[in-house]
């Protein structure tokens, strides 16, 4: 019989962490840095309402489920919208009683939007499916290129090389650094990414203006362990930083998180040059998978050779809460796609 114990992150001692790390070996998905206990620890420093359910079966610890209490009734994923992989670190072969877990978490509602679909007990409560596109580099860059060529247009990297030559001609020699520890470049990326958020979706959606998020990302940048680290990659043209990316690495997996490029050089697609360079040098740095995260952006589809299925939904007790949310989401989606929705968006833009 399964048992759940709720603990604080501070209560995760050396023994519990060792078990957690062992559980990560039970699924390739768990190799994502989001499932490393260091990520949960950092989020707990940034937001003190992070808790962990310890999952036991027949008096043996079989998993951990980090979550974040939003209030007395509602919980969500650790790190909220920052977190691209969510859910328990426990063998996918174990079917967890999710409603019992909800009671153990002492809430009535728990939403998720980046849950691996292999967690069937959560997928049963989902209302939407998505995927996280990936670059499989386990066989090296040449093998990746061969797969990419078979899947879609082989000209992607030729176009990127042409843009490299044009950018070099205009701005100077290119210099790519796969793993940079430059704080100045890290801060430049955050500044550029904030400007991008403000320009494209408005100042209220600039996540780096939120103190706890900025603190957490700064903390991740400071991590340098091979098993969990912040990873900054930069591309210079002459003396100018034209593109950068900040993500997280755990072992052989790089999660591509916050890419940015200088729009003054947009005609040369410096962001694509940067991602192509990361793919080329991945093997030299022991990286076998670059995970681009959820979303169907064109650049992700052009570079990806595989994907990880995800789902979005919620568990709730009573079920009525979840049913109301599903109805609300459906109404919003229908309104968005309707003529009235288009008129409302046009009105907002004026």
TrEMBL record:
GO molecular function annotations of the record: transferase activity
Tagged with keyword RNA-binding: no
Keywords: Transferase
Domain of life: Bacteria
The keyword Transferase appears for this protein: yes
InterPro entries: Acyl_CoA_acyltransferase, BioF2-like_GNAT_dom
Domain called BioF2-like acetyltransferase: residue spans: 159-301
Pfam families in the cross-refs: Acetyltransf_6 (PF13480)
The protein, known as: GNAT family N-acetyltransferase
UniProt organism field: Undibacterium oligocarboniphilum
């Amino acid at each position: 019989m399964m048992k759940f114990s709720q603990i604080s992150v501070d209560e995760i001692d050396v023994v519990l962490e060792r078990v957690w790390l062992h559980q990560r070996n039970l699924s390739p998905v768990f190799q994502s840095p989001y499932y490393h206990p260091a990520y949960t620890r950092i989020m707990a420093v940034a937001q003190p309402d992070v808790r962990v359910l310890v999952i036991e079966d027949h008096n043996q610890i079989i998993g951990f489920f980090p979550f974040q209490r939003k209030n007395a009734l509602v919980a969500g994923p650790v790190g909220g919208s920052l977190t691209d992989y969510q859910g328990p670190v426990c063998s996918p072969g174990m079917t967890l009683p999710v409603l019992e877990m909800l009671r153990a978490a002492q809430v009535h509602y728990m939403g998720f939007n980046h849950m691996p679909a292999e967690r069937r007990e959560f997928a049963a409560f989902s209302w939407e499916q998505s995927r996280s596109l990936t670059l499989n580099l386990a066989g090296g860059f040449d093998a990746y290129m061969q797969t990419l060529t078979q899947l879609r247009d082989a000209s992607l990297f030729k176009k990127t090389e042409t843009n490299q030559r044009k950018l070099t001609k205009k701005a100077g020699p290119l210099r790519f650094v796969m793993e940079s520890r430059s704080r100045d470049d890290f801060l430049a990326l955050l500044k550029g990414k904030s400007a991008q958020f403000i320009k494209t979706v408005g100042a209220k959606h600039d996540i780096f203006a939120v103190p706890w998020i900025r603190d957490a990302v700064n903390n991740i940048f400071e991590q340098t362990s091979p098993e969990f680290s912040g990873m900054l990659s930069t591309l210079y043209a002459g003396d100018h930083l034209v593109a950068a990316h900040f993500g997280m690495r755990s072992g052989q997996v790089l999660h591509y998180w916050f890419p940015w490029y200088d729009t003054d050089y947009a005609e040369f697609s410096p962001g694509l040059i940067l991602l192509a360079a990361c793919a080329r040098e991945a093997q030299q740095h022991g990286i076998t998978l670059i995970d681009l995260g959820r979303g169907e952006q064109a650049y992700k589809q052009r570079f990806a050779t595989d994907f990880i299925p995800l789902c979005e939904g919620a568990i709730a007790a009573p079920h009525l809460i979840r049913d109301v949310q599903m109805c609300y989401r459906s109404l919003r989606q229908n309104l968005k796609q309707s003529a009235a929705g288009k008129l409302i968006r046009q009105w907002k833009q004026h």
